[in-house]
TrEMBL record:
The keyword Cytoplasm does not apply. It comes from the Eukaryota. One of its GO terms (molecular function) is transmembrane ascorbate ferrireductase activity. It is found in: Membrane. Keywords: Electron transport, Heme, Iron, Membrane, Metal-binding, Transmembrane, Transmembrane helix, Transport. Residues 15-220 form the Cytochrome b561 domain. It comes from Escallonia rubra. PANTHER family: CYTOCHROME B561-RELATED, TRANSMEMBRANE ASCORBATE FERRIREDUCTASE 4-RELATED. Its cofactor is heme b. It is a multi-pass membrane protein. This is ascorbate ferrireductase (transmembrane).
Amino acid sequence: MAKIFSAPLFSLLLFARLSALTVAVLVLTWALHFKISFIPHHSSQEDLIYAVLHPVLMVIGFILISGEAILVHRWLPGSRNLKKSVHLCLQGVALSCGIFGIWTKFHGQDGIVANFFSLHSWMGLICVSLFGAQWLIGFLSFWHRGEIRTIRVRVLPWHVFLGLYTYGLAVVTAETGLLEKLTFLQAKGDVLKRGTESMVVNGLGLGLALLSGVVILAAVSPKRAKHQTPQTKIIYSNNKCLTS
C-alpha cells in the first residue's frame, strides 16, 4: 500500500471513507428511525416512501457516490482510461440518483409547485443540471479522445473546477435542506431542539461539511513526484501532442 500511496494521501482517503460511512449511517438512521417526521400522519404509505427516499438518494446516491468518483483518480490502480471509465460510471450512477431523488418530490401530495419554492429546491435543480451537463461533456469527451485532444487539454482545468464546485454546491444544498426541515419540525413542536432527532440531523450536517472538505483536499493534493518521470510526461502544443 505504501508503494501506491504516500502516507498523507492514504490518511486522507481513509478519513474520507470513514466520514462517508458516518454520513451514510446518520442519514439512514434519520430516514428510517425518525421517518414519521418526513410526512404528516394522515398521508399514504406511498407518500411516506417517496419522502424518505429523497434524503437517502440525494445524500448517499448523489453526494457520496459522486465524492467517490472524484477520489477514483487518486486511489484506483491501473491505466488512465480505466480510471476515467470508472469515474464516468460512478458519476452516471450519482446523476441517476440525483434525478430520481428530485423526481420523488414531484409526487408530493401538495403538487409540484409547492415543493419547489425554497432556496434549497432552487439550488438542487441548479446543482443536478450542472452535474448533468458535466457528465454529458465528460461522456462525449471520453468517446472522442483522439479528435479533440487539444480542446480537452484546454477544457480540463474548467472541467475539474466545475466538478469540484458542483460537488461543493451539492453539499451546501443538502445543508440548506437539513436546516429547512429541522427548523420546520422544531417550529411545529414535533422535534425538540435538544432531542435525539435534532442531534442526528445536526451531526449529519457536520459530517457532510467534514466529508466535503476531505474529498476536495484529497482531489487537489499534489501527486508524488517520483511517479512523474520525463519519459511518461505528455506535453501538449496547440497543434499536436508531443512526447518528451
